[in-house]
Every structure is written in structure tokens, then in C-alpha cells.
Amino acid sequence: MKIAIDAMGGDMGPKVTVTGAVDAAREYGFSICLVGQKDLLTSELSKHDTSGLDLVIEDASQTVTMDDLPLVAVRQKKDSSIRIAAELVKSGEADGMVSAGNTGAVMATAKIFFGALEGVDRPAIATVLPTIKGMSLLLDVGANVDCKPMHLLQFAIMGHAYAQQVLHIPKPTVGILSIGSEESKGNELSRMALSLIRQTPFNIVGNVEGRDIFRGLVDVAVADGFVGNVALKIAEGVEEMITSLIKREIRKSIMGRLGFWFMIPAFKNLKKSIDYAEYGGAPLLGLNKVCIICHGISEAKAIKNAARVAAEFITKKVNTQIKEDISAIRQMIEKKKISAVESC
Asked: How far is CA 237 from CA 150, 240, 241, in A?
């Protein structure tokens, strides 16, 4: 197992990505290929004890910034760390890639170099969200702003496979993210998508509201990339707000600060359950290869866990499961067991 990590990506750059890579190699025993400016990465690696670890560096002279336009980055920065990492995976020298760099550039590069799985029209970004019952998967969270009902059906298939194989949920429930639980609620896209998905053998909940995700009422929530991304950003903002409010209230009085010490174990458990770093990165589902996209503010723990997610994606053969499920649904469509496809 070899994971290529874009060591130049993320807001904090090599200092964080190298630390995360070292931690992943030490904890999980992976072979890690750090991709980026060789001198800089060598210097960062020298700060760690790497004895016995399988860590190599692949030189890449260019770095894609967060301000670079995706297609411009792909076409003009042909020696970027993102592109070289993708080339390693495409050639088979690495089994999967991880990047906390420019999300648009990572997606564009992965789509061009890896191609979509047979039967998949639009690859989708999936993210794991904490719930009171455990975790749920939300997709798409930004790869496809404008979608058709058939795309949401494919998202449901891919999310279902990922939830089974990586999140270890035997029979995932699937729902369409909408403005109400009633069948009549939502826009034309969500209503038509629900009509399609209801005809599949999946465990369909129906429409779910945003709050239902965090209640744990659904294992896989499906939406177009516009709605999914807005929902994700709101969730991140609420988490930040609650954390800030708790800190402010604690600092207000001596009793608050005193009570904090008794609540430390509870706060640690809470932080762990809602910390995005615990879940690693977001997989770009629907590609022929494995690509995990991390948040730009990712710290070392997030990079380490993203490498773990990439490895589990590979060992659990998620792409094989997606292809089999897509094929099964296509056969149902051909045999007219799923109707109203033409209008979708």
C-alpha cells in the first residue's frame, strides 16, 4: 500500500503534511510518497524520527495556490505537487492520493487523470458528519453545482457503497436532503430524484431535513453540490460558534472556570466527536482511482486520518462495489423496472 500525499497543499503547508505523513507511516505501516519541493520536504523530514518508516519524496517544482483557477493550474502548472501525485496514482506507482490543496484543482486533476467509473456521469465529494447516533455521509458537497435527478441517483448508489464498506454500516438508510419530510416538499430536482431512488432496492427513508442528518435519522444524505456545500458550511459555522460561546461563558466567572476542570473529560469527548480531523478527508467518489480531499485548514491529524481513509477505500474495494451497484441499477433501468428515467 502506497499513498501519495500532496505535501505542498493546505494552509499550513509541508510542516503539517509531513508530520501527518510520518504519523500515518508510523501508526498504520503505510508506504508514503511525499510530493513537493524536495529540498523543503527533506528539511521538514529531518525534524522527525523516520527510522524504520517507508517514506520517500517525489520532487515537484511547482505549487498550486488557493487562488489559482482549477483548469489554469492543471494546464500551466504541469510540475505541480497535485499533478505529480495524480500521475503517480495513474501509473500505478501509488495506490491513492491525498491533498489539502486547492479543491477545484484537485478535482479537475483527478477527473482528467483518473476518469470516471463506468456508468458514473458526475463524480461527487462525500463528507462524514457527526450525529447523535454516530455518523452520516453527505454528498455531493461541492463538485457539482447543477445536477439532474439521475446524478442524484448515482450519488445515492456511491454513498451507499461507501457507507457500507468504509463506515461499516451493513444496511445504510438513504434520504434526499430537502425542505421537508413530506413527499411533496422540495424542488423539481429533489422530487424527481426521490421518485427514482424509491424504485431501487436501497433502504430509502425519503426526504430528510438538514436537522435530521445530525439526529442520525439517515446514514446517507443526497443533494446537489450547491445545497450540499451550503449545508456543510453552515454546519461548520455552527460548530465554531458553539465552541466560541462555550469558551466565552467559561471565562466569564470563577465558577465557570472552576466548573470547566470537572467537565474536561466531557469536553474532550465532545471535541473528538465533532472534530473533522477525526474523519480524515472527503473522498471524491466515482473515479477509477482513489482521491481524498482534505480541508484547507487540515492539521497533521487530519492528514494522517486521510491516509487511513484512502487505504481503507482501497482495501475495502469501494470502487468495485460502486461499479457492481451501478451496473445492477442500469440493468433495472433497461428492464423498465425503474420508470420515468427518460425525463431525468
From this structure: 31, 5, 6
Per residue in 217-258, pLDDT (tens digit) is 999 999 999 999 999 888 888 878 887 888 888 888 887 777
Q: 161 to each of 47, 68, 134, 155, 196, how far by Cα in Å?
A: 40, 33, 18, 10, 18
Report the largest interatomic distance among the alpha carbons of the chain, rounded to a whole angstrom: 70
Angle between helices 38-45 and 14-28 (to 10 degrees): 60
Residue 182 class from Cβ within 10 Å (0-12 exposed, 13-18 middle, 19+ buried)?
exposed
Query: Which cell numbers in the block locate residue 4?
Result: 501519495
Cα 104 from chain centroid?
13
The predicted model gives 141-163 an average pLDDT of 94
Q: How many CB atoms lie within 10 A of CB 69?
A: 14
Distance CA 232, CA 293 (A): 15
- DSSP class of 252: T
Reading phi first (left if > 0) and then psi (alpha if -120 to 50, else beta), residue 109 is in alpha
- pLDDT at 274 (0 to 100): 60
Q: How many CA atoms are closer than 13 Å to the CA of 50, on its beta-carbon side?
A: 21
Indicate the helix (H) or strand (E) that contains 97. Answer: strand 96-99
Q: Are 17 and 10 in contact (CB under 8 A)?
A: yes
Q: Report the C-alpha gap between 48 and 324 in whole angstroms.
A: 43
- Of 143, 170, 168, the closest CA to residue 229 belongs to 143
- Burial of residue 124 (CB within 10 Å: 0-12, 13-18, 19+) is buried
Terminal-residue alpha carbon distance, the chain: 40
The model's pTM is 0.90
Cell readout for 227 is 445545497
